[in-house]
Design brief:
Blueprint (H helix, E strand, L loop, with lengths): L6 H11 L7 E6 L7 E7 L3 H7 L5 E11 L5 E11 L5 H17 L5 E5 L7 H12 L7
Parallel strand pairs: 4-5
Antiparallel strand pairs: 1-2, 1-3, 3-4
Length: about 140
Amino acid sequence: MADVSDPAIIEAYNDVRSDKTDTKWLLLDYESDRSDKLQVSKTGTGGLTELQENLDNSKASYAYVRVTYANDKESKREKFILVVWIGPECKVMRKAKISVHAADVKQVLRVYSLDVPAREKDDLNEEPIVKKLRKAGGASYDGI
């Protein structure tokens, strides 16, 4: 089991969800290579591109992101995604624990529209994620 008991995780989660802060994402990393305790390693006010820049290819991490997109000229939607990042250079033993740990993370970072497994930074390009969010959101008048 992953240890997600750090109160800073809930605080960062609430910041991302709040309309009163500029925080758009949070990144959870393991305390050390041998630890199963997660902590908030970074938060940011940019979007998915900024998050991509902060991912470490040698780590497994979890991110919670607010994604804003326009459905048409008059509307704007905000949805949340949960990213399970397994960097291409992540150690085998860490990879083996991810599916179990992801379930523990989902108990804390509960409200999201899309679960995004990412193995390469390109898996977090905004356009394909927004397409998936539009499909998941139901009312799409663009034929997507």
